[in-house]
Specification:
Blueprint: E1 17-19, E2 43-45, H1 49-61, E3 66-69, E4 86-89, E5 96-100, E6 105-109, H2 114-123, E7 126-127, H3 140-145, H4 153-156, H5 159-162, E8 163-169, E9 175-178, H6 192-195, E10 204-211, E11 213-214, E12 220-226, H7 229-242, E13 247-254, H8 255-261, E14 278-284, H9 289-306, E15 311-314, H10 318-329, H11 331-335, E16 340-346, H12 352-366, E17 371-376, E18 382-388, H13 395-408, H14 433-446
Parallel strand pairs: 2-4, 3-4
Antiparallel strand pairs: 1-2, 5-6, 6-10, 7-11, 8-9, 8-10, 12-14, 12-15, 13-14, 13-17, 16-18, 17-18
The structure holds flavin-adenine dinucleotide.
Flavin-adenine dinucleotide binds near residues 141, 142, 149, 204 and 205.
């Protein structure tokens, strides 16, 4: 308890459960990147907003730096402590407070794992549609703070679109309760947007009102083959025009991804006899299985006829659909036991072909030994560039190469995972000097002593 705090942190004896010294396990020293892990000076685990507010008030008064920790699944180093920081963990801030079936909302504490939220919605015949591989550990507070995306953004938007209201504790301990449940609310600034995607730099999210949707009754999944990537972009336009409202996912994989990953995935099999330039998984979810299946079949028949699509395999049941998805999820199996660098960028969709051609060309000339995988949530302009088999000393040049090229294409150096501590140097490639100056102004206004998640997102001046 608070008595275990070292002398220098006795001002934090405000009631919350505290870990210090040897009680601080490795869990609190790094997020899932395991880069620059560092033991915090103490771990504070508040169980109520009032406890957290008291902690932040004491930290503000004593200029004590704080790092916020959710499930620690982040991929940008944001939750990894820096020297001299205390960690505030939301692990005891866990539970669903309310599901409002009329408003189609769920009010949930920030430390609740994403999967708990998804399961609770399903139990009411509803869905919370944001999904990602770390669902069992990642928390809603972390999802909100990183504005997480996932594979269904093309239909439901990113987390930002799924948050109706928030409660946050500011760096000085002020509690802002804004647990709005209404879709329309233009009464002044919509303050929640300041904190969504802020990576814990402006406040600590304590409670969230999430938007829920009716559970679809049909699922139609197909894997498509294209002669070249440009065809998959052309198909995207047709999908958006002809299948409006039904498309849950459109995940594109270049041949370099398919050829490397498919042989390592157990359940995938070999759907196509020939090799192709690119592949996509298309999934529709609607309200009538037979009608939606027929719609997908006739749509794809037209695309085969026109030559946009070279070949198609349609899943006949959920098991087959899951097997098709195992190709996309197979990046996990492929990566186990080998170091991979995962760049997560956005490129305007019209430039994606040129961008990836430049990467492939430069790979051949400069880095012929690396393994390169290209895939992404293409409907959302999001591209994952994964690199393996790089040599010692190439980590930084490879990182510079991909991020600088992204900047040249007016892309975003972080589509989904955030800036954290690992990409702050690259922020000016995607944000103007004026934008960064405004970010600094907001940060210094809300956190004048720069105590909360210091050095994340924007560098110290
Ligand atoms: C296997 C895997 C797959 C993934 N797939 C995707 C994907 O498809 N799409 C996608 O968008 N992302 C993906 N991610 C990244 C994912 O979005 C983040 O890991 C997750 O949202 C972070 O949640 P967390 O609770 O673990 O947060 P943490 O890792 O603990 O923290 C992340 C950041 O948020 C801050 N933070 C955490 N909780 C709070 C809070 N309550 N208030 C204020 N700040 C807080 C932290 O300080 C840190 O800066 C994936 C990650 C993994 C490991």
């Amino acid at each position: 308890m608070a008595a275990s705090l070292p002398e220098s942190l006795q001002f934090l004896s405000v009631g919350a459960t505290v870990l210090s010294g040897d009680d601080i396990t490795d869990r609190y020293t790094s997020d899932w990147t395991f880069v620059n892990h560092c033991k915090p000076d103490a771990v504070l685990r508040p169980a109520s907003t009032l406890e957290l507010a008291a902690i932040m008030k004491a930290c503000h008064q004593n200029h004590q730096p704080v790092v916020v920790q959710g499930g620690l699944t982040g991929l940008a180093g944001g939750a990894t402590p820096s020297h001299g920081e205390v960690a505030v963990s939301l692990e005891k801030f866990n539970g669903i407070e309310e599901i409002d079936e009329f408003a189609m909302t769920m009010t949930v504490k920030a430390g609740t794992p994403l999967q708990t939220v998804q399961d609770a919605a399903l139990a009411k015949g509803l869905v919370f549609p944001m999904d990602l591989g770390a669902r069992g550990t990642a928390t809603i507070g972390g999802n909100v703070s990183t504005n997480a995306g996932g594979v269904q953004v093309i239909r439901y938007g990113m987390t930002r679109a799924l948050v109706m209201g928030l409660e946050v504790v500011l760096p000085d301990g002020t509690i802002i309760t804004s647990l709005n449940k209404m879709l329309k609310n233009n009464a002044g600034y919509d303050l929640k947007h300041l904190f969504i995607g802020a990576e814990g730099t402006l406040g600590i999210v304590t409670r969230v009102v999430l938007r829920l949707f009716a559970k679809p009754k049909s699922r139609c999944t197909a894997v498509l083959a294209f002669n070249e990537f440009a065809n998959s972009v052309e198909l995207l336009r047709k999908i958006q025009a002809d299948l409006t409202g039904l498309v849950n996912c459109y995940e594109v994989m270049w041949d370099c991804y398919f050829d490397n990953v498919a042989p390592t995935v157990k359940n995938f099999g070999k759907p196509f006899d020939e090799s192709h330039g690119a592949y996509a998984i298309l999934e529709l979810c609607g309200n009538h299985q037979q009608r939606d299946s027929e719609l997908l079949e006739s749509f794809l028949a037209e695309q085969l006829e026109s030559g946009i699509v070279a070949d198609v395999v349609i899943a006949q049941n959920d098991t087959q659909a899951d097997n098709l998805w195992s190709l996309r999820h197979g990046i996990g199996e492929f990566g186990s036991g080998r170091p991979l660098i995962n760049y997560d960028v956005s490129i305007p969709i019209g430039d994606m072909d040129t961008f990836t051609r430049q990467i492939l060309q430069q790979q051949q000339t400069t880095y012929p030994h690396i393994t390169l995988l290209l895939f992404g949530h293409i409907g959302d302009s999001n591209l994952h560039v994964v690199i393996g088999d790089y040599k010692d000393g190439e980590f930084k040049p490879l990182k510079d190469w991909i991020h600088q090229l992204t900047g040249q294409f007016n892309g975003s150096i972080s589509a989904e995972h955030g800036i954290g501590k690992l990409k702050t140097d690259y922020l000016p490639l995607s944000r103007s000097a004026e934008e960064i100056a405004l970010m600094r102004l907001i940060k210094s206004t809300i956190d004048p002593h720069n105590i909360l998640n210091r050095g994340r997102v924007i560098n110290a001046t």
